[in-house]
Protein backbone atom coordinates (compact mmCIF):
# COMPACT_ATOMS: atom_id res chain seq x y z
CA UNK A 1 0.00 0.00 0.00
CA UNK A 2 1.42 3.45 -0.90
CA UNK A 3 2.63 5.57 2.00
CA UNK A 4 0.20 8.41 1.25
CA UNK A 5 -2.72 5.97 1.39
CA UNK A 6 -1.53 4.65 4.75
CA UNK A 7 -1.27 8.20 6.09
CA UNK A 8 -4.78 9.04 4.88
CA UNK A 9 -6.20 5.96 6.60
CA UNK A 10 -4.38 6.79 9.83
CA UNK A 11 -5.66 10.36 9.74
CA UNK A 12 -9.19 9.11 9.09
CA UNK A 13 -9.00 6.68 12.02
CA UNK A 14 -7.57 9.39 14.26
CA UNK A 15 -10.38 11.77 13.35
CA UNK A 16 -12.97 9.05 14.01
CA UNK A 17 -11.41 8.36 17.41
CA UNK A 18 -11.41 12.04 18.36
CA UNK A 19 -15.08 12.27 17.40
CA UNK A 20 -15.76 9.31 19.69
CA UNK A 21 -13.87 10.92 22.58
CA UNK A 22 -15.52 14.29 21.95
CA UNK A 23 -18.92 12.61 22.11
CA UNK A 24 -18.01 10.88 25.36
CA UNK A 25 -16.91 14.15 26.94
CA UNK A 26 -20.11 15.82 25.75
CA UNK A 27 -22.27 13.03 27.19
CA UNK A 28 -20.58 13.33 30.59
CA UNK A 29 -20.12 17.11 30.48
CA UNK A 30 -21.52 17.79 33.95
CA UNK A 31 -19.01 15.37 35.48
CA UNK A 32 -16.07 16.76 33.54
CA UNK A 33 -17.02 20.33 34.35
CA UNK A 34 -16.67 19.59 38.04
CA UNK A 35 -13.37 17.68 37.86
CA UNK A 36 -10.42 19.52 39.33
CA UNK A 37 -7.64 17.15 38.24
CA UNK A 38 -7.96 18.07 34.56
CA UNK A 39 -7.22 21.70 35.39
CA UNK A 40 -3.86 20.60 36.78
CA UNK A 41 -3.02 19.26 33.33
CA UNK A 42 -3.62 22.60 31.63
CA UNK A 43 -0.96 23.80 29.21
CA UNK A 44 -0.66 26.97 27.20
CA UNK A 45 -3.16 25.88 24.57
CA UNK A 46 -4.20 22.32 25.46
CA UNK A 47 -5.78 20.47 28.36
CA UNK A 48 -5.39 16.75 29.06
CA UNK A 49 -8.61 14.99 30.05
CA UNK A 50 -8.64 11.46 31.53
CA UNK A 51 -11.23 9.32 29.70
CA UNK A 52 -11.68 6.07 31.69
CA UNK A 53 -14.76 4.96 29.75
CA UNK A 54 -13.11 4.54 26.35
CA UNK A 55 -11.90 0.96 25.90
CA UNK A 56 -8.54 0.49 24.22
CA UNK A 57 -8.57 -1.64 21.06
CA UNK A 58 -7.38 -5.20 21.56
CA UNK A 59 -6.94 -8.42 19.56
CA UNK A 60 -9.33 -11.31 20.18
CA UNK A 61 -8.34 -14.90 19.46
CA UNK A 62 -10.54 -17.09 17.27
CA UNK A 63 -12.46 -20.18 18.41
CA UNK A 64 -10.95 -23.61 19.09
CA UNK A 65 -12.47 -25.11 15.94
CA UNK A 66 -9.92 -23.27 13.79
CA UNK A 67 -6.27 -24.18 13.62
CA UNK A 68 -3.46 -21.71 13.79
CA UNK A 69 -1.27 -19.73 16.14
CA UNK A 70 -2.57 -19.50 19.70
CA UNK A 71 -4.88 -22.54 19.48
CA UNK A 72 -3.03 -24.83 21.89
CA UNK A 73 -4.09 -26.05 25.32
CA UNK A 74 -4.87 -23.58 28.01
CA UNK A 75 -7.54 -21.28 29.25
CA UNK A 76 -8.17 -17.63 28.52
CA UNK A 77 -5.97 -15.49 30.73
CA UNK A 78 -3.20 -18.09 31.28
CA UNK A 79 0.29 -16.51 31.06
CA UNK A 80 2.46 -17.44 28.08
CA UNK A 81 6.04 -18.65 28.36
CA UNK A 82 6.58 -18.05 32.06
CA UNK A 83 5.30 -19.06 35.44
CA UNK A 84 3.17 -16.56 37.34
CA UNK A 85 5.25 -14.14 39.34
CA UNK A 86 4.76 -13.15 42.94
CA UNK A 87 2.81 -9.96 43.39
CA UNK A 88 1.83 -7.93 46.37
CA UNK A 89 -1.72 -7.74 47.68
CA UNK A 90 -4.71 -10.00 47.23
CA UNK A 91 -6.32 -10.87 43.92
CA UNK A 92 -9.41 -8.90 42.93
CA UNK A 93 -12.53 -10.04 41.15
CA UNK A 94 -13.30 -6.84 39.22
CA UNK A 95 -12.01 -5.79 35.80
CA UNK A 96 -9.44 -3.02 35.67
CA UNK A 97 -10.24 0.40 34.31
CA UNK A 98 -8.28 1.78 31.39
CA UNK A 99 -7.54 5.46 31.74
CA UNK A 100 -6.65 7.27 28.54
CA UNK A 101 -5.54 10.90 28.58
CA UNK A 102 -6.69 12.85 25.54
CA UNK A 103 -5.58 16.39 24.77
CA UNK A 104 -8.11 19.02 23.80
CA UNK A 105 -7.32 22.52 22.63
CA UNK A 106 -8.92 25.46 24.39
CA UNK A 107 -11.02 26.07 21.26
CA UNK A 108 -12.31 22.48 21.24
CA UNK A 109 -13.29 22.63 24.91
CA UNK A 110 -15.03 25.95 24.40
CA UNK A 111 -16.91 24.54 21.42
CA UNK A 112 -18.16 21.57 23.45
CA UNK A 113 -19.12 23.87 26.31
CA UNK A 114 -21.00 26.25 24.05
CA UNK A 115 -22.85 23.50 22.20
CA UNK A 116 -24.04 21.69 25.30
CA UNK A 117 -24.99 24.75 27.36
CA UNK A 118 -26.46 26.63 24.42
CA UNK A 119 -24.18 29.60 25.04
CA UNK A 120 -24.35 32.54 22.60
CA UNK A 121 -21.10 33.90 21.26
CA UNK A 122 -19.75 36.95 23.04
CA UNK A 123 -20.26 40.31 21.36
CA UNK A 124 -17.23 42.47 22.26
CA UNK A 125 -17.97 46.07 23.02
CA UNK A 126 -15.92 49.23 22.52
CA UNK A 127 -13.27 49.90 19.93
CA UNK A 128 -10.58 47.32 19.32
CA UNK A 129 -7.11 47.76 20.67
CA UNK A 130 -4.17 47.48 18.22
CA UNK A 131 -2.33 44.28 19.00
CA UNK A 132 -0.41 43.30 15.85
CA UNK A 133 0.61 44.57 12.43
CA UNK A 134 0.15 42.89 9.05
CA UNK A 135 2.56 43.28 6.12
CA UNK A 136 0.93 43.87 2.74
CA UNK A 137 2.84 44.20 -0.56
CA UNK A 138 1.61 47.28 -2.36
CA UNK A 139 3.95 48.15 -5.28
CA UNK A 140 7.38 48.11 -6.91
CA UNK A 141 10.44 50.16 -5.89
CA UNK A 142 13.90 50.62 -7.42
CA UNK A 143 15.59 49.81 -4.11
CA UNK A 144 15.10 47.07 -1.58
CA UNK A 145 16.56 43.87 -0.13
CA UNK A 146 17.56 41.03 -2.44
CA UNK A 147 14.98 38.76 -0.80
CA UNK A 148 12.22 40.97 -2.28
CA UNK A 149 13.68 41.30 -5.76
CA UNK A 150 10.96 40.98 -8.42
CA UNK A 151 12.40 38.77 -11.19
CA UNK A 152 9.77 39.43 -13.87
CA UNK A 153 9.83 43.21 -13.43
CA UNK A 154 13.65 43.21 -13.34
CA UNK A 155 13.93 41.19 -16.56
CA UNK A 156 11.32 43.33 -18.29
CA UNK A 157 13.20 46.52 -17.40
CA UNK A 158 16.51 45.03 -18.57
CA UNK A 159 14.91 43.89 -21.84
CA UNK A 160 13.47 47.37 -22.50
CA UNK A 161 16.86 48.99 -21.84
CA UNK A 162 18.68 46.49 -24.07
CA UNK A 163 16.27 47.03 -26.98
CA UNK A 164 16.32 50.82 -26.58
CA UNK A 165 20.11 50.88 -26.68
CA UNK A 166 20.24 48.72 -29.87
CA UNK A 167 22.14 45.93 -28.14
CA UNK A 168 19.41 43.29 -28.42
CA UNK A 169 20.22 40.45 -30.88
CA UNK A 170 17.22 38.18 -31.69
CA UNK A 171 19.62 35.44 -32.82
CA UNK A 172 21.44 35.60 -29.50
CA UNK A 173 18.81 36.91 -27.04
CA UNK A 174 20.98 37.44 -24.01
CA UNK A 175 19.70 40.02 -21.51
CA UNK A 176 21.94 40.96 -18.63
CA UNK A 177 20.37 43.25 -15.98
CA UNK A 178 22.48 46.06 -14.58
CA UNK A 179 22.01 47.82 -11.26
CA UNK A 180 19.47 50.30 -12.62
CA UNK A 181 17.24 47.47 -13.90
CA UNK A 182 16.55 45.80 -10.57
CA UNK A 183 13.05 46.15 -9.17
CA UNK A 184 11.88 45.19 -5.66
CA UNK A 185 8.54 44.59 -4.05
CA UNK A 186 7.49 47.36 -1.66
CA UNK A 187 5.31 46.79 1.37
CA UNK A 188 3.22 48.58 3.91
CA UNK A 189 2.39 47.64 7.47
CA UNK A 190 -1.30 47.69 8.35
CA UNK A 191 -2.59 47.54 11.89
CA UNK A 192 -4.59 44.47 12.85
CA UNK A 193 -7.30 45.39 15.35
CA UNK A 194 -7.77 42.83 18.09
CA UNK A 195 -10.27 42.99 20.93
CA UNK A 196 -8.76 42.93 24.38
CA UNK A 197 -10.45 41.49 27.44
CA UNK A 198 -9.59 41.47 31.12
CA UNK A 199 -11.08 39.10 33.67
CA UNK A 200 -10.75 40.42 37.22
CA UNK A 201 -11.25 37.61 39.73
CA UNK A 202 -12.01 38.55 43.33
CA UNK A 203 -12.32 36.07 46.20
CA UNK A 204 -12.97 36.17 49.90
CA UNK A 205 -10.09 34.35 51.63
CA UNK A 206 -11.24 34.83 55.21
CA UNK A 207 -11.37 31.92 57.62
CA UNK A 208 -14.87 30.86 56.54
CA UNK A 209 -13.66 30.01 53.03
CA UNK A 210 -12.18 26.52 53.16
CA UNK A 211 -10.28 24.40 50.63
CA UNK A 212 -13.43 22.92 49.09
CA UNK A 213 -14.91 26.36 48.50
CA UNK A 214 -11.71 27.52 46.81
CA UNK A 215 -11.65 24.40 44.65
CA UNK A 216 -15.14 25.23 43.39
CA UNK A 217 -13.96 28.75 42.55
CA UNK A 218 -10.92 27.34 40.73
CA UNK A 219 -13.05 25.02 38.59
CA UNK A 220 -15.57 27.72 37.65
CA UNK A 221 -12.75 30.17 36.87
CA UNK A 222 -11.08 27.64 34.56
CA UNK A 223 -14.20 27.27 32.41
CA UNK A 224 -14.80 31.02 32.36
CA UNK A 225 -11.22 31.49 31.12
CA UNK A 226 -11.76 28.79 28.49
CA UNK A 227 -14.84 30.51 27.11
CA UNK A 228 -13.33 33.99 27.10
CA UNK A 229 -10.09 32.84 25.43
CA UNK A 230 -12.12 31.34 22.59
CA UNK A 231 -13.54 34.80 21.84
CA UNK A 232 -10.65 37.18 22.45
CA UNK A 233 -7.18 37.16 20.94
CA UNK A 234 -5.74 38.88 23.98
CA UNK A 235 -7.05 38.28 27.48
CA UNK A 236 -5.50 39.36 30.77
CA UNK A 237 -6.41 37.86 34.14
CA UNK A 238 -6.05 39.87 37.36
CA UNK A 239 -6.54 38.37 40.82
CA UNK A 240 -7.70 40.06 44.02
CA UNK A 241 -8.01 38.42 47.43
CA UNK A 242 -9.67 40.07 50.37
CA UNK A 243 -10.58 39.64 53.98
CA UNK A 244 -10.86 42.95 55.79
CA UNK A 245 -8.36 44.31 53.24
CA UNK A 246 -7.92 43.68 49.52
CA UNK A 247 -4.69 43.01 47.66
CA UNK A 248 -3.72 42.01 44.12
CA UNK A 249 -1.94 38.64 43.97
CA UNK A 250 -0.77 36.11 41.39
CA UNK A 251 -2.87 33.12 40.31
CA UNK A 252 -1.23 30.57 42.60
CA UNK A 253 -1.62 32.79 45.66
CA UNK A 254 -5.22 33.49 44.72
CA UNK A 255 -6.26 29.85 44.97
CA UNK A 256 -4.13 28.83 47.95
CA UNK A 257 -4.20 31.75 50.40
CA UNK A 258 -6.23 31.44 53.56
CA UNK A 259 -6.57 34.17 56.17
CA UNK A 260 -8.28 34.28 59.53
CA UNK A 261 -9.45 37.88 59.56
CA UNK A 262 -12.87 39.41 58.98
CA UNK A 263 -14.53 40.25 55.69
CA UNK A 264 -15.05 43.66 54.08
CA UNK A 265 -16.25 43.13 50.52
CA UNK A 266 -16.09 46.83 49.67
CA UNK A 267 -12.27 46.68 49.82
CA UNK A 268 -12.19 44.23 46.88
CA UNK A 269 -14.60 46.28 44.78
CA UNK A 270 -12.64 49.47 45.38
CA UNK A 271 -9.38 47.81 44.31
CA UNK A 272 -11.11 46.36 41.24
CA UNK A 273 -12.31 49.84 40.24
CA UNK A 274 -8.81 51.25 40.85
CA UNK A 275 -7.27 48.64 38.52
CA UNK A 276 -9.79 49.55 35.84
CA UNK A 277 -8.98 53.24 36.26
CA UNK A 278 -5.24 52.67 36.00
CA UNK A 279 -4.87 49.94 33.38
CA UNK A 280 -8.13 49.04 31.65
CA UNK A 281 -10.13 51.95 30.21
CA UNK A 282 -13.48 50.76 28.95
CA UNK A 283 -12.83 52.29 25.51
CA UNK A 284 -10.05 49.75 24.93
CA UNK A 285 -11.05 46.77 27.05
CA UNK A 286 -13.89 44.31 27.47
CA UNK A 287 -14.03 43.99 31.26
CA UNK A 288 -15.35 41.01 33.25
CA UNK A 289 -15.22 41.23 37.05
CA UNK A 290 -16.05 38.00 38.92
CA UNK A 291 -16.44 37.90 42.69
CA UNK A 292 -16.67 34.75 44.81
CA UNK A 293 -17.60 34.65 48.47
CA UNK A 294 -19.61 32.68 51.02
CA UNK A 295 -21.86 35.70 51.43
CA UNK A 296 -20.70 36.70 54.90
CA UNK A 297 -19.78 40.41 55.20
CA UNK A 298 -18.59 42.45 58.18
CA UNK A 299 -21.56 44.78 58.43
CA UNK A 300 -24.59 46.11 56.60
CA UNK A 301 -22.78 49.44 56.26
CA UNK A 302 -19.91 47.82 54.35
CA UNK A 303 -22.41 45.92 52.21
CA UNK A 304 -24.06 49.18 51.21
CA UNK A 305 -20.68 50.73 50.46
CA UNK A 306 -19.74 47.74 48.30
CA UNK A 307 -22.99 47.96 46.33
CA UNK A 308 -22.46 51.69 45.82
CA UNK A 309 -18.99 51.06 44.36
CA UNK A 310 -20.44 48.49 41.96
CA UNK A 311 -23.22 50.81 40.87
CA UNK A 312 -21.15 53.97 40.46
CA UNK A 313 -17.64 52.84 39.48
CA UNK A 314 -17.94 49.35 37.99
CA UNK A 315 -21.24 48.72 36.21
CA UNK A 316 -21.03 51.69 33.79
CA UNK A 317 -17.76 50.35 32.39
CA UNK A 318 -18.01 46.56 32.23
CA UNK A 319 -19.48 43.99 29.87
CA UNK A 320 -20.79 42.07 32.84
CA UNK A 321 -20.43 41.85 36.61
CA UNK A 322 -20.76 38.37 38.13
CA UNK A 323 -21.14 37.28 41.74
CA UNK A 324 -20.84 33.60 42.67
CA UNK A 325 -21.68 32.46 46.19
CA UNK A 326 -20.20 29.21 47.43
CA UNK A 327 -21.85 27.40 50.30
CA UNK A 328 -19.93 27.37 53.55
CA UNK A 329 -20.94 26.08 57.01
CA UNK A 330 -19.64 29.36 58.44
CA UNK A 331 -21.02 31.91 55.98
CA UNK A 332 -24.42 33.59 56.36
CA UNK A 333 -25.11 33.82 52.62
CA UNK A 334 -26.72 37.21 53.05
CA UNK A 335 -24.68 39.07 50.45
CA UNK A 336 -26.28 37.19 47.55
CA UNK A 337 -29.70 38.41 48.67
CA UNK A 338 -28.38 41.97 48.92
CA UNK A 339 -26.90 41.88 45.40
CA UNK A 340 -30.07 40.47 43.88
CA UNK A 341 -32.19 43.01 45.69
CA UNK A 342 -30.03 45.96 44.62
CA UNK A 343 -29.56 44.95 40.96
CA UNK A 344 -32.63 42.90 40.11
CA UNK A 345 -33.23 45.03 36.98
CA UNK A 346 -29.61 45.24 35.84
CA UNK A 347 -29.01 42.85 32.95
CA UNK A 348 -25.23 43.12 33.25
CA UNK A 349 -25.31 41.78 36.82
CA UNK A 350 -25.48 37.98 37.04
CA UNK A 351 -25.43 35.83 40.16
CA UNK A 352 -25.14 32.13 40.89
CA UNK A 353 -25.19 29.84 43.91
CA UNK A 354 -22.46 27.19 43.91
CA UNK A 355 -23.46 24.81 46.68
CA UNK A 356 -21.30 21.88 45.49
CA UNK A 357 -19.67 20.36 42.42
CA UNK A 358 -23.03 19.41 40.94
CA UNK A 359 -23.89 23.11 40.80
CA UNK A 360 -20.80 24.07 38.76
CA UNK A 361 -22.50 23.57 35.38
CA UNK A 362 -25.48 25.73 36.35
CA UNK A 363 -23.16 28.47 37.62
CA UNK A 364 -21.18 28.48 34.37
CA UNK A 365 -24.40 28.67 32.37
CA UNK A 366 -25.59 31.61 34.47
CA UNK A 367 -22.31 33.49 34.06
CA UNK A 368 -21.92 32.96 30.32
CA UNK A 369 -25.43 32.76 28.86
CA UNK A 370 -25.79 36.53 28.38
CA UNK A 371 -23.44 36.72 25.38
CA UNK A 372 -21.88 39.92 26.73
How would you describe what is shown here?
The chain has 372 residues and is α/β, with parallel strands linked by helices. It has three domains: 1-56 and 98-105 and 112-117, no CATH class; 131-191, no CATH class; 195-368, 3-Layer(aba) Sandwich (Rossmann fold), CATH 3.40.50. 35% of the residues lie in helices and 21% in strands. The protein is built from ten helices and ten strands. It has helices at 3-27, 29-33, 106-117, 151-164, 211-229, 251-256, 265-279, 300-314, 334-342, 360-368, and strands at residues 46-51, 100-105, 129-141, 184-194, 196-204, 234-242, 246-249, 285-293, 321-326, 349-354. It has a six-stranded mixed β-sheet, sandwiched between helices. A two-stranded antiparallel sheet has the order 1-2. Strands 3-4 form a two-stranded antiparallel sheet. Helix 9 (334-342) links the parallel strand 9 and strand 10. Helix 3 packs across helix 5 (211-229) and helix 7 (265-279) packs parallel to helix 8 (300-314). The mean pLDDT is 78.
Amino acid sequence: MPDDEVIRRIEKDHARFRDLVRGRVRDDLRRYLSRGEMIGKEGDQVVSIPIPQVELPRFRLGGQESAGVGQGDGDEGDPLGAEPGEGGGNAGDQPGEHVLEVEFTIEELASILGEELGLPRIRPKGRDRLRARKVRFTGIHTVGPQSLRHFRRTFKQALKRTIASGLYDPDNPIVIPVREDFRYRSWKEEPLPHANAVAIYMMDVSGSMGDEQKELVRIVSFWIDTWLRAHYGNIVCRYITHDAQAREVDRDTFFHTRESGGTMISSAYKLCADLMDADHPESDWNIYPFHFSDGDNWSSDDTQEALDVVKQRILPRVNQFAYGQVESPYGSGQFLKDVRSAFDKEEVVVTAEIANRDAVLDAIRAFLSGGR
